[in-house]
Structure formats: C-alpha cells, structure tokens
Design brief:
There is one protein chain. With 119 residues, the protein is mainly α. The protein has one domain (19-112). The protein is 67% helix and 0% strand. The protein contains five helices and no strands. The protein has helices at residues 10-19, 24-47, 55-72, 82-97, 101-112. Helix 1 packs across helix 4 (82-97), helix 1 (10-19) packs across helix 5 (101-112) and helix 2 packs antiparallel against helix 3. The two termini are 20 Å apart.
C-alpha cells in the first residue's frame, strides 16, 4: 500500500481508494462488475432465481481483481479495508455514472500529494 495511514472514516478512505483506481480501464472493470452485481441483486427476487445471488461475489470481485492485477497492477484495497472498499465501489460507480469521476480522481491525487501515473 502506498499510503501507510490507517483509515477509520469512510470519507477519509475514499480519496485513497480513488488513487488506487487511477487507470480508467481499471475503473471500467469495476463499473462493469458493480453494474452486474446490481443487476443480479435486482433480478434474483424479481425472477425468483435466487441462485443469481451466488454470482454477486464472483462478478464483483472478478472484474475488480482483473482490473487491479492486470491493468492497474496493484493490490486491491479490499484486502485491508473490505467494507470501505465495498462502499467505495458503489460511490465510484455513481461518480462514473454521473460524469464526476475524472475530477474526483484528480482531486484525490492532489489531496494525497500523489502523481497519477495514468494521466
């Protein structure tokens, strides 16, 4: 982990999380995984196909970990901050959906004094 600070508040963690998702391709993988998680969570009860809920961890973590290990080339923050990372996935999803993500990532890098290697 680049930043050895221990996070105890979600909104303090989120900028760090964004710096770990600096590469747009990694964010795209997270977006796809989170979208599929939402689809499964909605469709399972609607279609009464509850086995779809079993796909949630595979889809969510699968896309995210491919993004980290092969694209961003870093260790997923979920290993150290599982709940903050889960929440951050959904916040980042919203920021991507609403077109705010580029500014949020830049702001996070500035706040933490880290250069974005993908810009």
């Amino acid at each position: 982990m680049k930043n050895e600070q221990r996070y105890t508040k979600f909104w303090d963690f989120y900028p760090y999380y964004l710096t770990e998702h600096a590469r747009p391709a990694n964010r795209a993988m997270h977006f796809i995984g989170t979208a599929l998680v939402i689809v499964c969570a909605v469709l399972a009860p609607v279609l009464q196909r509850y086995y779809l809920l079993l796909l949630i961890p595979l889809l969510g973590y699968g896309f995210a970990w491919i993004g980290h290990f092969f694209l961003e080339r870093n260790k997923p923050a979920t290993f150290q901050y599982p709940l903050y990372s889960l929440g951050s996935d959904f916040v980042m999803f919203w920021h991507i959906l609403t077109g705010q993500i580029t500014d949020k990532v830049r702001e996070a890098h500035r706040k933490l004094g880290i250069t974005n290697p993908w810009e």
